[in-house]
Design a protein that fits this description.
mainly beta; four-stranded antiparallel sheet
Length: 123
């Protein structure tokens, strides 16, 4: 199983970016999906999460600007980022709790991380 993230880049303040992340491999189902970020010199921060039922939560600093969404059929999660600010500059990581079957047919859940994608907000 792997998570493949894409969509980062350089954008001016006030601009828009959309990050995408796709889970692939031997997957039974995907539960919670989310995005984290780590800015230089700072600890990793949870940005947004979404359940398989579509319930979303956001860190206060992005509420009203970022929207997380997912496609359960495709095992993908997206983060639409509007009104970007320089303080949004960070490496963004997607994250998912994925159910798989083991060799005995039993289900088990593991947490997976995508590779980071850089978002830079600068004029």
């Amino acid at each position: 199983v792997q998570l493949q993230a894409s969509g980062g880049g350089l954008v001016q303040p006030g601009g828009f970016l959309r990050l995408s992340c796709a889970a692939s491999g031997s997957i039974f189902s995907v539960n919670r999906m989310g995005w984290y970020r780590r800015a230089p010199g700072k600890q990793r921060e949870l940005v947004a999460t979404i359940t398989s039922g579509g319930s979303a939560n956001y860190v206060d600093s992005v509420k009203g600007r970022f929207t997380i969404s997912r496609d359960n059929a495709k095992n993908t999660v997206c983060l639409s980022m509007n009104s970007l600010k320089p303080e949004d500059t960070a490496t963004y990581y997607c994250n998912a709790d994925i159910l798989r079957r083991n060799g005995l047919g039993s289900l088990y859940q593991s947490e997976y991380w995508g590779q980071g994608t850089q978002v830079t907000v600068s004029s």
